[in-house]
Amino acid sequence: MFIEPTSIDGLYTIDPDRHVDDRGYFARAWCVNEFSENGLTAGFVQSSISYNAKAGTLRGMHFQTEPYGETKLIRCERGAIHDVILDVRPGSDTYLQWEAFRLDPLDGRQLYVAPGLAHGFQTLADDTVVSYQIDTFYEPDHATGVRWDDPAFGIEWPDAAERIMSDKDRSWPDFEP
Questions:
Q1: Residue 80's domain is classified under what CATH number?
Q2: Of 101, 119, 79, 111, residue with least CA distance to 15
Q3: Which CA distances in Å does 7 have to 16, 73, 99, 138?
Q4: What element of type H or E holds 169?
Q5: Per residue in 76-105, is it b (16+ CB within 10 Å) or e — as a string?
Q6: What is the phi/psi pair of residue 125, to 5°?
Q7: Does 66 score more than 90 pLDDT?
Q8: Residue 176 has pLDDT above 90, yes or no
Q9: Residue 172 lies in a domain
Q10: What is the rounded CA–CA span in Å between residue 112 and residue 118?
Q11: Kindly report the CA angle at 15 between 26 and 20, in degrees rounded to 5?
Q12: Would you please indicate which residues are annotated as catalytic (active-site) residues?
């Protein structure tokens, strides 16, 4: 696998090293040795799946506050997503900066997301499935988020004929740094 840092500290792309033949390809999606050698957390304790029936579904921007900050390994298993990571760590060199990636099962790219980075995505296809490996158990009292369209961030989202969201995600208050 190819592990590459992005412009946001703690955010990495992980691309498969494919072994291709006439059947398709085979590749490792995760390896404790390769993660450890690159200084990445390898102790995932929870796996979650997000099924999204319709294109235009937007989930996010979510994170857990300390001391329950989460490291996530995110992969699109079916369909396609526009995935956004936002740095909400005060004092970080990339504070309030964001990056976006297209994830789909054909290229197999994954995102490694460090604690303190908010995560959200918009589906680009019907019947999209996103999987997460997480290194910390869910703590409802520490689960929070920021609004997807808050002008403080200027996140660019794809157009959608219909944007399907939870009331909670649609109504996070304005961000106050």
A1: 2.60.120.10
A2: 111
A3: 20, 17, 8, 27
A4: helix 167-170
A5: beebbbbbbbbbbbeebebebbbbbbebbe
A6: -150, 155
A7: yes
A8: no
A9: no
A10: 12
A11: 25
A12: 62, 132
- CB within 8 Å of 63: residues ≥ 6 apart: 69, 70, 88, 115, 116, 117, 118, 119, 144, 145
Is 32 inside a domain boundary?
A: yes
Query: Which structural domain, as residue segments, surrounds residue 108?
Result: 2-166
Token pair listed for 161: 């004929």
Find where tokens 């197999």 sit: 108
Query: Could you tell me the pTM of the whole model?
Result: 0.95
Q: For residue 106, tell me if it sits in a domain.
A: yes
- What would the mean pLDDT of 50-68 be, rounded to a whole number? 97
Whether residue 173 is contained in a domain is answered as no
pLDDT in tens, 145-160: 999 999 999 999 999 9
Mean residue pLDDT of the chain comes to: 96
